[in-house]
Structure formats: structure tokens, C-alpha cells
Fold:
Amino acid sequence: MPRGTAALIVAVGPRSPTGRPGPDRAGVRPRCEWRRRRQAVGACTPWSCVPCFIVSESVLSIPEEVAVASRALAVWQNRQVVGLLVRRNLKVKYQQSVLGYAWSMLEPLAMSGVYFLVFGVLLNADRGTPGGPDAPGGYMLFLICGLLPWLSFSASLGEAPRALISHSKLITTMKVPREIFPLAVVTTKFVEYLFTWPVLLLFVFVLGGRTWGIGLLVWLPLALTVQFLFTLGVTLLLSSVNVLLRDIERIVRILNRVLFYASAVVYPASLVLDSGAAPGWFKVVYQLNPLVGIFQMHQSVWFPVGTPSSIALGGAIGGAVIMFIIGYSTFRRLEMSVLKEL
Structure:
């Protein structure tokens, strides 16, 4: 089988007197693999299917770029399904709740107060705040503008292993691309992050925070795009692997805690980069963590002095692209095995 191509194998049984493939030994007429796969993405029509009776056994190969483009088009055509799944997830989360949507603001408020007491007051982590302790907004604004996107990423990471398992009935009954289920999980958490923006704007107003044109026009859109792409790649990877190896769900719980302290969320990255105790190679590896650059971009919207370095920016953008490629490639390779398990 050629490498770098999406291979579609058409297996045909014995011919019947009418010239079409007859029943196999089990008495079941074999289905065209090409047609079955195209029906799965909603792109098969009677005249677009490769007839089973033309060949007895052959391999049809199409370029990988064409296969990826066709799947992306199928996902776009089923974008309404993604919207329905997102609305359902939001309704389920807040149903039978007295406060409802208010919880999306109360939770980050409570966590911000706890982390400000521990890191800002007791551990004096505010000494590395971009612009100094007297910067507009201070450490409290620095904390909240990094904590809100972290909560969104952490929630997506926690639900990523079950993105396919929790939708097993829909996956086996609906003829839609399977990518829409991890995409729906990431989109739901992204919408919840947007719901927390009133909290951020409240802190900006109360604490006297300021923004700048490049922060709103460059750093904010770039941070949202890179984080969404990186989170989607992680979700595609974990959702497919966890169906075959259920230990992934427990590993993710540990990884979630490690990444929180390995990224510049509750402490400024300058505390690590300006430390004389950390060797040079460690500082480079630290900046190559995509989450460090992502959260620095979020913080740069309100703190012009804290823009990410070229290494951190390259690590964030390059890491997001690489993670998406790895996640999507793994998802495609394991798709048939995942369907058998579901």
C-alpha cells in the first residue's frame, strides 16, 4: 500500500447470474467499502459510488491531501450537528441548577480569590508581574486573565478521553464524520470561556486595567486561535486512544495537574526565565511548552511588557500545529478500530 495515501480496499465476492457480486459464504451480500466510507461522511450518491462488480479485488488510492480536504468539507457540511451538540452540552450542564449561567462566573471568581491569597500574598509571586507591582491591574488582573483560558483548556482536557465513548450510540447510528464529536467538546468549552469574559471585564474595570491596540487586534485573536487548535489536536488524540486504552483517562488527571504548574498561569514566566538557579537548557525547554506561549499571549492583551519571546511564540504556534497533525493523524488511523470497540 503506498505510503502517504488513503487506501480504500474494495473486496468483492463471487458473481451472481445477474453479473453483480453474489452472497458470500455467510449468505450476506458484501458491501462496497468505498461506498460505505463515503456514506459515513454523507458524500455518497448512487452515481458516485465505485461499482463493486467492476473489479474482483483491487486497491483504490487517493492522495492524502484529497482525503483530508473531503473530510474537512464533510465536517463543514455537518456544522449544524456541531451546533446542536454544543447547545445540548450547555443545557445539560446548567439544567436543574438554580444559578445556571452564573456558575460560569462564580467558579473563576472563587478560584481567583484562593490563588491570589496563596500565590500573591503568601508566596509573593506578584514580584514578577509584567510592568511591576504597580502595573495597571496588578497581580490580580494578571492572575484572572491567565486563569480563565486555563479553566477552558483544563475542562477540555478532562473531557477529551470520553469525547467518543460518551457519544457511542450517536457515532454508530448517525452518518456523520466522527471528528465532529471531539470538535463539539472543544467548542463547548470555548463557548463557556466566552461566557466568563464579563468576569474579566469586571476585573479590568475595578482594578483599573488597560489594554492596547496590538493586544486586542493581534495577541487576543492569535491566542484564541492557537489555543483552540492545540486543544482540538489534544482532544482528537486522547479521544481515539482512550477507546482502545482506558488508562489514558487516569493519566490525563495527573497530566492536568502537572501542566497547571508547568505553565505560566498563576505565576509570571519571568520568575523562571530570570532565575539564576535554572540552567539555560531548562529555560529553553520551558518556553517550548505551547501552553506557556499561549497564556503569555492572553496576558499580553492587558500587559504590553509581558509579550512572549520568539522561542515561546514559536513553541506555541508550532506546538499547536504539530499537535493537531499528530492528533488528527492518530484519529484517522485508529478510526476503524475505534468503531469496532464502540
User: Anything to note?
Assistant: The chain has two domains: 5-72, 80-341. The CA atoms of residues 105 and 198 lie 8 Å apart. The chain has 15 helices and two strands.
